[in-house]
Amino acid sequence: MSFPSFSSIELIATAPMGLEAVVAREVRDLGYEQVTVENGRVTFTGDLLAVCRANLWLRTADRVLIKMAQFEARTFDDLFEGVKALPWPDWIPEDGEFPVEGRSHKSQLSSVPACQGIVKKAVVESMKPRYGTEWFRETEGRYVIEVSLLNDIATITLDTTGPGLHKRGYRKLVTEAPLKETMAAAMVLLSRWQPERPLYDPFCGSGTIPIEAAMIGWNIAPGLRRSFNAESWPVISEALWSEAREEAFDLVKDDIPLQIGGSDIDPAAIEVALAAAKSAGLAKELRFHTLPVSKALPAGDYGCLITNPPYGERLGDREEVERALRQFGQMHKQLPNWSAFILSPSKQMEHYLGRKADKKRKLFNGRIECALYQFFAPGGLFGWRKDSSTSGN
């Protein structure tokens, strides 16, 4: 079993199902090449600065974890000894709070509460010699430990993020069925949209897709407006966080003109979108309107429609949803040079658009299985060749 060193730490960016390759591409774009992609996670190697940069920059990951160890654990003794052997005092100070979360699947240690208790006890035993105490107050800083058991293999991690990375900090209010910011960003990245092109969302709800697109267009790190658990950790200095944030501020490209807008039939949703855009510092760059999709027709050539229409399961009734999707199909026909990317559980989307999708990608919006339907403009995405427009997705 190898212990993490501060110069070479194994990190895990957890990923929604179906977005692992997108997260991996983001990690590589940050300059970290030792990347392993698995179901629901992307593992990579970095240093303490990488913890800061990954939290600030990853748009589509759920959170950033430090991988403390992975070992076989068929008995509680295996689990206890494996966890106790780890260098917890190197990470957790004497007064740090260290709750334990857990999950188990296809493993002999199937009782999650029992595993959590064993891990907690093992961490305490590991820390006693260093701090010379039998009792820890747990009053300063938050160090969430997770034990994950799969096929009798225990993975022990330390959560650097805290509240999920989808919580950017700009959305104070929400609509009835909001799209997560991480999924909205993934849709924009998968579209390969470029900021010189128009982008429009005719079912914009609280404005998440246009706001995330604007942040991508201006290269704004999504974590700049929030804090993270690891910011209070003594092991990661304030200077490292400052270095990462200064780098992010220096890389903002807010001189690029943006042609991004959205509309929704619900005026309350548009109010939420306007408030979120203002909170994100993008109120002057984005255009939101209260319009039914039948009245929405964005201007510009070679643009991109990116949208998450209502499903019917959660919003409105099915007849209204089907009518709106038919109207969306009619709108798209009036925009022959626009590509369209639609996240929907509907099996009829190709019928509503009047053509087969050029590509479909299985994704989950929460617990709802959806497809990202991708309809490219003639000649490919934005006039590029179809066979190269979405390579590497």
UniProtKB/TrEMBL annotation:
SMART domains: THUMP (SM00981). GO terms for molecular function: RNA binding; rRNA (guanine-N2-)-methyltransferase activity; rRNA (guanine-N7-)-methyltransferase activity. It comes from the Bacteria. Keywords: Methyltransferase, RNA-binding, Transferase. Residues 50-160 form the THUMP domain. Gene3D superfamilies: 3.30.2130.30, Vaccinia Virus protein VP39. PROSITE patterns: N6_MTASE, THUMP, UPF0020. Signal peptide: none annotated. This is Class I SAM-dependent RNA methyltransferase.
